[in-house]
Amino acid sequence: MTTTVLLVDDHPVVRSGLRAVLDSADTVQVVGEAATGEEALTLAAHFHPDVVLCDLRLGSGIDGIETTAALRNLDPAPAVLILTTFDRDAEILGAIEAGATGYLLKEVAPETIIDGIQRAAAGETVLAPDLATRVLNGMRSPLPKLTDREIDVLSLLATGAANKEIARTLFVTEATVKSHLVHIFAKLGAENRSRAIHIARDTGLI
Amino acid sequence: MTTTVLLVDDHPVVRSGLRAVLDSADTVQVVGEAATGEEALTLAAHFHPDVVLCDLRLGSGIDGIETTAALRNLDPAPAVLILTTFDRDAEILGAIEAGATGYLLKEVAPETIIDGIQRAAAGETVLAPDLATRVLNGMRSPLPKLTDREIDVLSLLATGAANKEIARTLFVTEATVKSHLVHIFAKLGAENRSRAIHIARDTGLI
DNA sequence: ATCCGCATCAATCGTTTGGTTGATCTTTGT
DNA sequence: ACAAAGATCAACCAAACGATTGATGCGGAT
Protein backbone atom coordinates (compact mmCIF):
# COMPACT_ATOMS: atom_id res chain seq x y z
CA MET A 1 0.00 0.00 0.00
CA THR A 2 1.32 3.42 -0.94
CA THR A 3 1.80 6.26 1.50
CA THR A 4 0.45 9.63 0.40
CA VAL A 5 2.59 12.66 1.12
CA LEU A 6 2.14 16.42 1.04
CA LEU A 7 5.30 18.52 0.61
CA VAL A 8 5.63 21.84 2.38
CA ASP A 9 8.64 24.02 1.68
CA ASP A 10 9.02 27.60 0.57
CA HIS A 11 11.85 26.79 -1.83
CA PRO A 12 10.70 25.55 -5.23
CA VAL A 13 14.05 23.85 -5.71
CA VAL A 14 13.71 21.83 -2.54
CA ARG A 15 10.18 20.81 -3.44
CA SER A 16 11.39 19.63 -6.83
CA GLY A 17 14.16 17.71 -5.13
CA LEU A 18 11.83 16.00 -2.70
CA ARG A 19 9.42 15.17 -5.45
CA ALA A 20 12.21 13.70 -7.55
CA VAL A 21 13.42 11.65 -4.61
CA LEU A 22 9.98 10.43 -3.61
CA ASP A 23 8.79 9.73 -7.13
CA SER A 24 11.59 7.20 -7.38
CA ALA A 25 10.01 5.23 -4.54
CA ASP A 26 6.93 3.27 -5.56
CA THR A 27 5.64 2.99 -2.00
CA VAL A 28 5.26 6.74 -1.66
CA GLN A 29 3.02 9.06 -3.61
CA VAL A 30 3.27 12.83 -3.55
CA VAL A 31 -0.26 14.24 -3.62
CA GLY A 32 0.58 17.92 -3.41
CA GLU A 33 3.06 20.70 -2.81
CA ALA A 34 2.64 23.78 -0.67
CA ALA A 35 4.91 26.80 -0.37
CA THR A 36 3.32 28.21 2.79
CA GLY A 37 1.73 26.96 5.98
CA GLU A 38 -1.65 28.29 4.97
CA GLU A 39 -1.50 26.51 1.66
CA ALA A 40 -0.44 23.33 3.43
CA LEU A 41 -3.54 23.40 5.61
CA THR A 42 -5.83 23.88 2.66
CA LEU A 43 -4.26 21.07 0.68
CA ALA A 44 -4.08 18.73 3.68
CA ALA A 45 -7.76 19.27 4.44
CA HIS A 46 -8.53 18.44 0.83
CA PHE A 47 -6.24 15.49 0.12
CA HIS A 48 -5.92 13.90 3.57
CA PRO A 49 -2.32 12.80 3.06
CA ASP A 50 -0.90 10.14 5.35
CA VAL A 51 2.20 12.23 5.97
CA VAL A 52 3.05 15.90 5.65
CA LEU A 53 6.73 16.59 5.05
CA CYS A 54 7.26 20.10 6.34
CA ASP A 55 10.10 22.59 6.54
CA LEU A 56 10.34 24.62 9.72
CA ARG A 57 11.20 27.87 8.00
CA LEU A 58 8.49 28.89 5.64
CA GLY A 59 9.46 32.42 4.80
CA SER A 60 6.53 34.69 5.41
CA GLY A 61 3.33 33.60 7.10
CA ILE A 62 2.92 31.01 9.80
CA ASP A 63 5.97 28.93 10.63
CA GLY A 64 6.44 25.19 10.64
CA ILE A 65 5.56 24.72 14.29
CA GLU A 66 2.25 26.53 13.98
CA THR A 67 1.55 24.66 10.79
CA THR A 68 2.27 21.39 12.55
CA ALA A 69 -0.09 22.20 15.39
CA ALA A 70 -2.85 23.15 12.97
CA LEU A 71 -2.30 20.05 10.84
CA ARG A 72 -2.59 17.83 13.89
CA ASN A 73 -6.00 19.34 14.59
CA LEU A 74 -7.35 18.11 11.29
CA ASP A 75 -9.51 15.02 11.19
CA PRO A 76 -8.03 12.69 10.17
CA ALA A 77 -4.76 14.19 11.31
CA PRO A 78 -1.76 13.50 9.08
CA ALA A 79 1.56 12.48 10.57
CA VAL A 80 3.86 15.48 10.37
CA LEU A 81 7.51 14.91 9.60
CA ILE A 82 9.73 17.95 9.99
CA LEU A 83 12.52 18.17 7.46
CA THR A 84 14.79 21.13 7.82
CA THR A 85 18.32 22.41 7.58
CA PHE A 86 18.61 23.47 11.18
CA ASP A 87 18.91 21.50 14.33
CA ARG A 88 18.29 24.05 17.00
CA ASP A 89 17.05 22.49 20.18
CA ALA A 90 14.13 24.75 20.94
CA GLU A 91 12.75 24.24 17.48
CA ILE A 92 13.01 20.50 17.65
CA LEU A 93 11.27 20.36 20.99
CA GLY A 94 8.74 22.91 19.84
CA ALA A 95 7.91 20.82 16.83
CA ILE A 96 7.59 17.66 18.89
CA GLU A 97 5.37 19.45 21.37
CA ALA A 98 3.24 20.71 18.53
CA GLY A 99 2.63 17.10 17.59
CA ALA A 100 5.27 16.40 14.98
CA THR A 101 5.88 12.71 14.45
CA GLY A 102 9.53 13.19 13.71
CA TYR A 103 12.36 15.41 12.72
CA LEU A 104 14.95 14.88 9.99
CA LEU A 105 17.77 17.07 8.77
CA LYS A 106 18.09 17.83 5.08
CA GLU A 107 21.60 16.47 5.10
CA VAL A 108 20.29 12.93 5.20
CA ALA A 109 20.32 10.54 2.28
CA PRO A 110 17.19 10.17 0.14
CA GLU A 111 16.59 6.63 1.39
CA THR A 112 16.47 7.90 4.93
CA ILE A 113 13.73 10.31 3.99
CA ILE A 114 11.69 7.62 2.29
CA ASP A 115 12.22 5.32 5.23
CA GLY A 116 11.26 8.10 7.63
CA ILE A 117 8.04 8.78 5.76
CA GLN A 118 6.97 5.19 5.95
CA ARG A 119 7.78 4.92 9.61
CA ALA A 120 5.96 8.16 10.29
CA ALA A 121 2.93 6.84 8.41
CA ALA A 122 3.08 3.74 10.65
CA GLY A 123 2.88 5.99 13.67
CA GLU A 124 6.50 5.68 14.69
CA THR A 125 8.52 8.58 15.99
CA VAL A 126 11.35 9.39 13.63
CA LEU A 127 14.42 11.26 14.80
CA ALA A 128 17.79 11.73 13.16
CA PRO A 129 20.24 9.72 15.28
CA ASP A 130 22.23 12.60 16.72
CA LEU A 131 19.04 14.44 17.47
CA ALA A 132 17.47 11.69 19.54
CA THR A 133 20.01 12.06 22.32
CA ARG A 134 19.59 15.77 22.52
CA VAL A 135 15.82 15.53 22.60
CA LEU A 136 16.00 13.06 25.45
CA ASN A 137 18.41 15.32 27.27
CA GLY A 138 15.96 18.10 26.66
CA MET A 139 13.36 16.05 28.44
CA ARG A 140 15.59 15.39 31.38
CA SER A 141 16.49 19.04 31.89
CA PRO A 142 13.71 20.86 30.14
CA LEU A 143 14.48 24.02 28.30
CA PRO A 144 13.89 27.04 30.46
CA LYS A 145 10.46 28.45 29.77
CA LEU A 146 10.71 32.17 29.38
CA THR A 147 7.64 34.32 29.75
CA ASP A 148 6.41 36.43 26.86
CA ARG A 149 7.80 39.52 28.44
CA GLU A 150 11.13 37.93 29.02
CA ILE A 151 11.25 36.95 25.37
CA ASP A 152 10.54 40.57 24.48
CA VAL A 153 13.45 41.70 26.58
CA LEU A 154 15.69 38.95 25.31
CA SER A 155 14.94 39.80 21.71
CA LEU A 156 15.87 43.41 22.22
CA LEU A 157 18.89 42.34 24.19
CA ALA A 158 20.01 40.32 21.20
CA THR A 159 19.95 43.40 18.99
CA GLY A 160 22.49 44.96 21.31
CA ALA A 161 20.10 47.38 22.96
CA ALA A 162 21.10 48.89 26.31
CA ASN A 163 18.74 48.58 29.25
CA LYS A 164 17.61 52.15 28.74
CA GLU A 165 16.69 51.47 25.14
CA ILE A 166 14.87 48.29 26.05
CA ALA A 167 12.96 50.17 28.71
CA ARG A 168 11.97 52.89 26.27
CA THR A 169 10.93 50.42 23.61
CA LEU A 170 8.78 48.37 25.95
CA PHE A 171 7.38 51.39 27.78
CA VAL A 172 8.58 50.28 31.19
CA THR A 173 11.25 51.55 33.54
CA GLU A 174 14.82 50.42 33.54
CA ALA A 175 14.16 48.74 36.88
CA THR A 176 11.65 46.46 35.24
CA VAL A 177 14.05 45.59 32.50
CA LYS A 178 16.69 44.70 35.04
CA SER A 179 14.20 42.59 36.89
CA HIS A 180 13.40 40.66 33.73
CA LEU A 181 17.06 40.32 32.94
CA VAL A 182 17.80 38.81 36.32
CA HIS A 183 15.16 36.18 35.68
CA ILE A 184 16.39 35.56 32.16
CA PHE A 185 19.97 35.12 33.31
CA ALA A 186 18.86 32.76 36.04
CA LYS A 187 16.77 30.65 33.69
CA LEU A 188 19.43 30.48 31.03
CA GLY A 189 22.29 30.04 33.44
CA ALA A 190 24.02 33.06 31.92
CA GLU A 191 26.34 35.27 33.90
CA ASN A 192 26.14 38.26 31.60
CA ARG A 193 24.10 39.61 28.75
CA SER A 194 26.40 38.49 25.98
CA ARG A 195 26.31 34.94 27.24
CA ALA A 196 22.55 35.13 27.49
CA ILE A 197 22.40 36.13 23.85
CA HIS A 198 24.66 33.26 22.94
CA ILE A 199 22.65 30.69 24.86
CA ALA A 200 19.40 32.01 23.49
CA ARG A 201 20.65 31.68 19.94
CA ASP A 202 22.16 28.33 20.63
CA THR A 203 18.97 26.82 21.93
CA GLY A 204 16.84 28.51 19.34
CA LEU A 205 14.91 30.58 21.86
CA ILE A 206 15.20 33.53 19.53
CA MET B 1 24.32 25.72 -27.75
CA THR B 2 23.84 24.09 -24.35
CA THR B 3 25.43 25.37 -21.17
CA THR B 4 27.16 22.75 -19.03
CA VAL B 5 26.65 22.99 -15.29
CA LEU B 6 28.20 21.41 -12.20
CA LEU B 7 26.03 21.31 -9.06
CA VAL B 8 27.62 21.77 -5.66
CA ASP B 9 25.48 21.35 -2.55
CA ASP B 10 25.84 19.21 0.53
CA HIS B 11 22.15 18.32 0.57
CA PRO B 12 21.21 15.42 -1.70
CA VAL B 13 17.66 16.68 -1.81
CA VAL B 14 18.68 20.07 -3.10
CA ARG B 15 20.93 18.51 -5.73
CA SER B 16 18.03 16.37 -6.90
CA GLY B 17 15.85 19.42 -7.00
CA LEU B 18 18.30 21.41 -9.06
CA ARG B 19 18.84 18.52 -11.38
CA ALA B 20 15.11 18.12 -11.85
CA VAL B 21 14.73 21.80 -12.54
CA LEU B 22 17.66 22.02 -14.92
CA ASP B 23 16.89 18.80 -16.76
CA SER B 24 13.63 20.38 -17.77
CA ALA B 25 15.56 23.07 -19.63
CA ASP B 26 17.06 21.89 -22.91
CA THR B 27 19.61 24.68 -23.03
CA VAL B 28 21.29 23.52 -19.85
CA GLN B 29 23.05 20.26 -19.20
CA VAL B 30 24.09 19.05 -15.77
CA VAL B 31 27.45 17.35 -16.09
CA GLY B 32 28.05 16.48 -12.46
CA GLU B 33 27.12 16.81 -8.81
CA ALA B 34 29.42 17.44 -5.87
CA ALA B 35 28.62 17.36 -2.16
CA THR B 36 31.78 19.11 -1.02
CA GLY B 37 34.12 21.85 -2.17
CA GLU B 38 36.94 19.39 -2.70
CA GLU B 39 34.78 17.18 -4.85
CA ALA B 40 33.64 20.21 -6.81
CA LEU B 41 37.22 21.10 -7.68
CA THR B 42 38.00 17.60 -8.86
CA LEU B 43 34.91 17.39 -11.02
CA ALA B 44 35.32 20.90 -12.40
CA ALA B 45 38.91 20.17 -13.39
CA HIS B 46 37.72 17.07 -15.17
CA PHE B 47 34.53 18.24 -16.88
CA HIS B 48 35.27 21.94 -17.45
CA PRO B 49 31.67 23.04 -16.95
CA ASP B 50 30.62 26.48 -18.20
CA VAL B 51 28.98 27.27 -14.88
CA VAL B 52 29.31 25.94 -11.36
CA LEU B 53 26.19 26.36 -9.25
CA CYS B 54 27.44 26.40 -5.69
CA ASP B 55 25.95 26.59 -2.21
CA LEU B 56 27.79 28.75 0.30
CA ARG B 57 27.35 26.35 3.20
CA LEU B 58 28.91 23.05 2.43
CA GLY B 59 28.86 21.36 5.79
CA SER B 60 32.33 20.11 6.59
CA GLY B 61 35.40 20.95 4.54
CA ILE B 62 36.11 24.15 2.66
CA ASP B 63 33.25 26.60 2.32
CA GLY B 64 31.65 28.09 -0.75
CA ILE B 65 33.85 31.17 -0.81
CA GLU B 66 37.07 29.20 -0.75
CA THR B 67 35.65 26.84 -3.33
CA THR B 68 34.77 29.79 -5.53
CA ALA B 69 38.27 31.21 -5.30
CA ALA B 70 39.81 27.85 -6.17
CA LEU B 71 37.42 27.30 -9.05
CA ARG B 72 38.28 30.66 -10.52
CA ASN B 73 41.92 29.63 -10.56
CA LEU B 74 41.23 26.76 -12.89
CA ASP B 75 41.97 27.07 -16.57
CA PRO B 76 39.55 27.47 -18.16
CA ALA B 77 37.78 29.00 -15.17
CA PRO B 78 34.06 28.26 -14.91
CA ALA B 79 31.61 31.00 -14.04
CA VAL B 80 30.57 30.49 -10.44
CA LEU B 81 27.00 31.19 -9.49
CA ILE B 82 26.30 31.17 -5.76
CA LEU B 83 22.89 29.77 -4.84
CA THR B 84 22.12 29.77 -1.18
CA THR B 85 19.47 30.25 1.44
CA PHE B 86 21.13 33.10 3.22
CA ASP B 87 21.65 36.66 2.25
CA ARG B 88 24.18 37.88 4.72
CA ASP B 89 26.10 40.82 3.45
CA ALA B 90 29.62 39.74 4.26
CA GLU B 91 29.10 36.45 2.53
CA ILE B 92 27.72 38.03 -0.58
CA LEU B 93 30.61 40.44 -0.81
CA GLY B 94 33.05 37.69 0.09
CA ALA B 95 31.73 35.54 -2.73
CA ILE B 96 31.89 38.39 -5.22
CA GLU B 97 35.42 39.20 -4.14
CA ALA B 98 36.36 35.56 -4.54
CA GLY B 99 35.30 35.84 -8.14
CA ALA B 100 31.70 34.65 -8.11
CA THR B 101 29.78 35.71 -11.17
CA GLY B 102 26.54 36.07 -9.29
CA TYR B 103 24.44 35.31 -6.29
CA LEU B 104 20.93 33.93 -6.17
CA LEU B 105 18.71 33.00 -3.24
CA LYS B 106 17.06 29.60 -3.17
CA GLU B 107 13.69 31.23 -2.82
CA VAL B 108 13.70 32.16 -6.47
CA ALA B 109 11.62 30.47 -9.12
CA PRO B 110 13.19 27.71 -11.24
CA GLU B 111 13.08 29.88 -14.36
CA THR B 112 15.17 32.50 -12.59
CA ILE B 113 17.82 29.92 -11.88
CA ILE B 114 17.92 28.75 -15.47
CA ASP B 115 18.04 32.32 -16.65
CA GLY B 116 20.78 33.09 -14.17
CA ILE B 117 22.89 30.19 -15.36
CA GLN B 118 22.69 31.31 -18.95
CA ARG B 119 23.53 34.88 -18.09
CA ALA B 120 26.41 33.70 -15.93
CA ALA B 121 27.70 31.59 -18.81
CA ALA B 122 27.56 34.68 -20.99
CA GLY B 123 29.76 36.48 -18.50
CA GLU B 124 27.08 38.66 -16.99
CA THR B 125 26.90 39.39 -13.30
CA VAL B 126 23.74 37.94 -11.81
CA LEU B 127 22.29 39.31 -8.61
CA ALA B 128 18.90 38.79 -7.03
CA PRO B 129 17.13 42.16 -7.28
CA ASP B 130 17.05 43.03 -3.58
CA LEU B 131 20.65 42.01 -3.25
CA ALA B 132 21.96 44.29 -5.96
CA THR B 133 21.20 47.41 -3.96
CA ARG B 134 22.86 46.12 -0.87
CA VAL B 135 25.95 45.06 -2.73
CA LEU B 136 26.25 48.47 -4.27
CA ASN B 137 25.80 50.06 -0.88
CA GLY B 138 28.48 47.73 0.34
CA MET B 139 30.78 49.14 -2.29
CA ARG B 140 30.04 52.69 -1.28
CA SER B 141 30.74 52.09 2.40
CA PRO B 142 32.85 49.00 2.38
CA LEU B 143 32.47 46.49 5.16
CA PRO B 144 34.89 47.14 7.94
CA LYS B 145 37.92 44.91 7.59
CA LEU B 146 38.74 43.36 10.93
CA THR B 147 42.18 41.97 11.58
CA ASP B 148 42.62 38.29 12.36
CA ARG B 149 43.16 39.04 16.00
CA GLU B 150 40.07 41.18 16.13
CA ILE B 151 38.09 38.35 14.63
CA ASP B 152 39.44 36.08 17.35
CA VAL B 153 38.25 38.47 20.00
CA LEU B 154 34.94 39.04 18.30
CA SER B 155 34.28 35.32 18.04
CA LEU B 156 34.87 34.82 21.73
CA LEU B 157 32.83 37.90 22.44
CA ALA B 158 29.94 36.33 20.60
CA THR B 159 30.00 33.31 22.87
CA GLY B 160 29.36 35.64 25.79
CA ALA B 161 32.87 35.53 27.20
CA ALA B 162 33.93 38.29 29.57
CA ASN B 163 37.09 40.24 28.86
CA LYS B 164 38.96 38.21 31.43
CA GLU B 165 37.97 34.95 29.76
CA ILE B 166 38.88 36.24 26.33
CA ALA B 167 42.25 37.32 27.69
CA ARG B 168 42.89 33.90 29.22
CA THR B 169 41.83 32.06 26.09
CA LEU B 170 44.03 34.14 23.80
CA PHE B 171 46.97 34.27 26.23
CA VAL B 172 47.08 38.04 26.38
CA THR B 173 46.25 40.55 29.07
CA GLU B 174 42.88 42.09 29.61
CA ALA B 175 44.34 45.40 28.47
CA THR B 176 45.02 43.91 25.08
CA VAL B 177 41.54 42.57 24.82
CA LYS B 178 40.09 45.95 25.66
CA SER B 179 42.33 47.52 23.09
CA HIS B 180 41.05 45.15 20.42
CA LEU B 181 37.50 45.76 21.52
CA VAL B 182 37.85 49.49 21.15
CA HIS B 183 38.96 48.98 17.57
CA ILE B 184 36.21 46.48 16.90
CA PHE B 185 33.56 48.80 18.24
CA ALA B 186 34.92 51.66 16.20
CA LYS B 187 34.99 49.65 13.00
CA LEU B 188 31.54 48.21 13.50
CA GLY B 189 30.03 51.41 14.82
CA ALA B 190 28.89 49.59 17.93
CA GLU B 191 28.49 51.28 21.27
CA ASN B 192 28.59 48.14 23.38
CA ARG B 193 29.51 44.50 23.12
CA SER B 194 26.02 43.21 22.61
CA ARG B 195 25.51 45.52 19.67
CA ALA B 196 28.84 44.47 18.27
CA ILE B 197 27.72 40.88 18.37
CA HIS B 198 24.50 41.81 16.66
CA ILE B 199 26.22 43.73 13.91
CA ALA B 200 28.79 41.01 13.41
CA ARG B 201 26.07 38.40 12.98
CA ASP B 202 24.04 40.67 10.81
CA THR B 203 26.81 41.32 8.35
CA GLY B 204 28.03 37.75 8.44
CA LEU B 205 31.40 38.64 9.92
CA ILE B 206 31.06 35.67 12.20
C1' DA C 1 65.42 53.46 5.36
C1' DT C 2 61.12 54.88 6.63
C1' DC C 3 56.38 54.61 7.46
C1' DC C 4 52.28 52.47 8.75
C1' DG C 5 49.33 48.98 10.50
C1' DC C 6 49.05 45.46 13.89
C1' DA C 7 49.52 43.34 18.43
C1' DT C 8 50.79 44.05 22.80
C1' DC C 9 50.45 46.30 27.39
C1' DA C 10 49.43 50.12 31.23
C1' DA C 11 46.90 53.52 33.95
C1' DT C 12 43.01 56.11 34.72
C1' DC C 13 38.09 57.50 34.94
C1' DG C 14 33.20 57.72 34.58
C1' DT C 15 29.32 54.88 33.33
C1' DT C 16 26.82 50.70 32.87
C1' DT C 17 25.75 46.46 34.43
C1' DG C 18 24.36 42.64 37.14
C1' DG C 19 23.07 41.00 41.77
C1' DT C 20 20.13 41.71 45.65
C1' DT C 21 16.20 42.61 48.34
C1' DG C 22 11.79 43.86 48.69
C1' DA C 23 7.37 45.69 47.25
C1' DT C 24 2.68 46.29 44.72
C1' DC C 25 -0.70 44.85 41.38
C1' DT C 26 -2.95 41.75 38.01
C1' DT C 27 -3.94 37.48 36.09
C1' DT C 28 -4.57 32.66 36.22
C1' DG C 29 -5.77 28.47 38.02
C1' DT C 30 -7.91 25.74 41.74
C1' DA D 1 -11.54 32.90 47.87
C1' DC D 2 -6.90 31.94 47.74
C1' DA D 3 -2.45 30.74 46.11
C1' DA D 4 0.87 31.07 42.48
C1' DA D 5 3.02 33.31 38.86
C1' DG D 6 3.93 37.21 36.17
C1' DA D 7 4.76 42.19 35.42
C1' DT D 8 5.85 46.23 37.35
C1' DC D 9 8.89 49.38 40.09
C1' DA D 10 12.71 51.13 43.69
C1' DA D 11 17.28 51.74 45.83
C1' DC D 12 21.80 50.23 46.53
C1' DC D 13 26.57 48.52 45.52
C1' DA D 14 30.58 46.30 43.75
C1' DA D 15 32.41 44.69 39.60
C1' DA D 16 32.75 45.03 34.88
C1' DC D 17 32.85 47.79 31.09
C1' DG D 18 34.02 51.37 27.51
C1' DA D 19 36.77 55.40 26.52
C1' DT D 20 40.99 57.68 26.52
C1' DT D 21 45.76 58.34 26.25
C1' DG D 22 50.01 56.73 25.53
C1' DA D 23 53.83 53.49 24.72
C1' DT D 24 56.67 49.50 22.66
C1' DG D 25 58.04 46.13 19.25
C1' DC D 26 57.40 43.89 14.89
C1' DG D 27 56.54 43.18 10.21
C1' DG D 28 55.33 44.47 5.50
C1' DA D 29 55.07 48.11 2.07
C1' DT D 30 57.13 51.92 -0.51
Characterise the protein shown here.
Chain A is an alpha/beta fold and 206 residues long. Chain A is built from 10 helices and 6 strands. In chain A, strands 2-1-3-4-5-6 form a 6-stranded parallel β-sheet, sandwiched between helices. In chain A, strand 1, helix 1 (12-23) and strand 2 form a beta-alpha-beta unit. In chain A, 41% of the residues are buried. The mean pLDDT of chain A is 86. Chain A binds chain B through residues 10-21, 59, 85, 106-110, 113, 157-162, 190-199, and chain B through 10-21, 59, 85, 106-110, 113, 157-162, 190-199. The first copy, chain A, binds a DNA duplex (30 and 30 nucleotides) through helix 7 and helix 9.
Question: Helix and strand layout, with pairings?
Answer:
Two copies of one chain form a homodimer.
Chain A: E1 3-8, H1 12-23, E2 28-34, H2 37-47, E3 51-54, H3 64-72, E4 79-84, H4 89-97, E5 102-105, H5 110-121, E6 126-127, H6 129-140, H7 148-158, H8 163-170, H9 174-188, H10 193-203
Parallel strand pairs in A: 1-2, 1-3, 3-4, 4-5, 5-6
Helix pairs in contact in A: 2-3, 7-9, 8-9, 9-10
Chain A binds a DNA duplex (30 and 30 nucleotides) through helix 7 and helix 9.
What's the gist of this structure?
Chain A is of the alpha/beta class. Chain A is 53% helix and 14% strand.
Order of helices and strands of chain A: EHEHEHEHEHEHHHHH
Number of strands of chain A: 6
Tell me, what's the shape of chain A?
elongated
Strand content of chain A: 5-15%
**Span between N and C termini of chain A?**
42 Å
Q: Structural class, from helix and strand content of chain A?
A: alpha/beta
Oligomerization: homodimer
Radius of gyration of chain A: 19 Å
Could you estimate the helical fraction of the residues of chain A in percent?
40-55%
Name the chain pair with the biggest interface and residue counts per chain.
A-B, 36 and 36 residues
Give the neighbour order of strands across the main sheet of chain A.
Answer: 2-1-3-4-5-6
Mean pLDDT of chain A, to the nearest integer, reads: 86
Low-pLDDT segments of chain A: none
Largest beta-sheet details of chain A: 6 strands, parallel
